[in-house]
From TrEMBL:
Species, as recorded: Pseudoxanthomonas composti
Bilayer-crossing regions: none
Domain ABC transporter: 9-244
Name of the protein described by the UniProt record: ATP-binding cassette domain-containing protein
Entry-linked InterPro entries: AAA+_ATPase, ABC_transporter-like_ATP-bd, ABC_transporter-like_CS, P-loop_NTPase
Domain of life: Bacteria
UniProt keyword list: ATP-binding, Nucleotide-binding, Transport
GO molecular function: ATP binding; ATP hydrolysis activity
């Protein structure tokens, strides 16, 4: 197989276990380079767990995870190196409140490169410009709206030009307009910077239009993978139940999560 054909992500018979419980089993998946993949599924189905296997945070109980043809390493030094190539945007944004927007975006560049300060400053300006926040460098996170803060976190995730971007619920807490801005930014950046993107989202209607491939996780397995059009047309009762948000159907209720909520 030539390098061009090596997928950005290749999962083979993957099994993921957390707290002694199998969360996902027999996951086979190829994410082509340059594509955008949506990972959909009910709460507690294992979407974030799947992302944790991609970043090497969770070691698989069985099966294989390869990024750009390379197995995700186990040693912490090699893992650190690999993670430079994976941009991650988590739900909480994770901006440091005592640092300005510019300093937040500069963090990965300061931590992982030895570039001179003047060059870092120019790269930061470039990244902020890419997310439409050219003039926000000197603001503090508390001065930003939710949508702006999400875009700063996006600029920071892009700082090292990662070939793979992973988004976990990028629209949480945003209004429809800010959500539209974020989704079109994700799409535009993916194509203009030649990246591959994986988006975990509950927001089916905002996410499907920008993606090339959609996956549905439910009942401990990958129950659907195909194009958004194939997803909409699927007559699989699991897929239908999820797409239409029906409480009754073949998707089992997450009893472990329920027990925890009740105990809280
Ligand atoms: N660190 C952990 N230890 C034990 N169990 C865990 C851990 N993290 C997650 N789980 C369990 O794994 C299952 C999948 O969790 P995960 O966070 O991947 O779901 P999710 O699909 O991302 O849900 P959501 O849409 O609510 O974010 C859940 O049942 C959860 O309780
Ligand atoms: Mg999650």
């Amino acid at each position: 197989m030539s390098l061009e054909q090596t997928p950005a992500v290749h999962l083979d018979a993957l099994r993921l276990v957390r707290g002694g419980r199998t969360i996902l089993r027999e996951v086979d998946l190829r994410v082509p380079r340059g594509s955008i993949t949506a990972v959909l599924g009910p709460s507690g189905s294992g979407k974030s767990t799947l992302l944790a296997a991609l970043t090497g945070e969770l070691v698989p109980a069985a099966g294989k995870v390869e990024l750009f043809g390379q197995p995700v390493p186990r040693s912490s030094r090699a893992l650190l190196e690999m993670r430079k190539g994976v941009g991650v945007l988590l739900q909480g944004n994770g901006l440091l409140t005592d640092l300005t927007v510019g300093e937040n975006v500069a963090l990965p560049l300061r931590a992982h490169t030895r570039l001179p300060a003047a060059l870092i400053e120019r790269l930061v300006a470039f990244k902020l410009n890419a997310v439409g926040l050219r003039t926000a460098a000197d603001l503090y996170p508390r001065e930003l709206s939710g949508g702006m803060a999400r875009r700063v976190a996006l600029a920071r995730a892009l700082a090292l030009d990662p070939p793979l971007m992973i988004y976990d619920e990028p629209l949480t807490g945003l209004d429809p307009i800010a959500s539209g801005v974020i989704m079109s930014l994700i799409q535009r950046l993916n194509h203009s910077l030649g990246m591959t993107s994986i988006i975990v989202s509950h927001h089916v209607h905002e996410t499907l239009p920008v993606c090339d491939q959609a996956l549905v996780i439910a009942n401990g397995a990958l129950v659907f993978s195909g194009t958004p059009a194939q997803l909409q047309a699927s007559d699989d009762p699991l897929v239908q139940q999820f797409l239409h948000g029906r409480p009754d159907g073949p998707i089992a209720f997450d009893t472990a999560a329920t027990r925890r909520t009740e105990a809280a």
